[in-house]
Design goal:
This protein is of the alpha/beta class and 234 residues long. 26% of the residues lie in helices and 30% in strands. The chain has 7 helices and 12 strands. A hairpin with a 4-residue loop joins strand 1 and strand 2. Helix 1 runs parallel beside helix 5.
Amino acid sequence: MEDIFGKALLDFQIGRYTEDIVTYSSLNIKDTLPLPYLFRDYDNMPVLEQKALDLCFGEVLDIGCGTGSHSLYLQQQGFEVTALDYSKGAVETCKSRGVKKTAYSDILDHTQKYDTLLLLMNGIGIIGRLQNLDIFFMHLKSLLKPYGQILLDSSDIIYMYDADEDGGIWLPKSSSYYGEIQFTLEYKGKRGLPFYWLYLDYATLKKAAKIHGMICELVSNGEHYDYLAKLSVL
């Protein structure tokens, strides 16, 4: 499978930036993912991301690290951080930018333990479908050192669906969770394979955490239906 995302990141890193990634979603929305934004520094990150980075402690695993912007900041603050991604191009970009420790791996294949697991930019989206949440949580718990924490942000995207005059929401006639969105990426005329990306509302996250014996705390709400949560083992 061609690494569309990774190729775009590497092109930007080596000075071949001529266009952005185009995204197509099952919500019938065509959008762009600006590559410069993915290379932002701490001062240009959303407040929720800054808060998450400020809450990190101990040894950190940056899951779905992308360009490594979060890992680089933590590294500069003296943290021992590992940047993990399933995109080979993303991992190569992190190395090129100066991230010292990287892991090219599916998170479910990773076994080292950490004090902080970081999943930013809707990092929990990597699980794709709500039905995968149980096995994902069980694995994340196995990666936590005693008294460790999981920091993640996500969004409740129910606002993207139409509402009627009484305030009711018209959801698609489907048995799937409304936050399961299928995306396709296009870059420089090439399209990748479709994949699911999960947007998880806070109530569902908290319920799932409780089932798996974890405390779920709402750290902060963002400006547009997004939130930052902290999970820890009971």
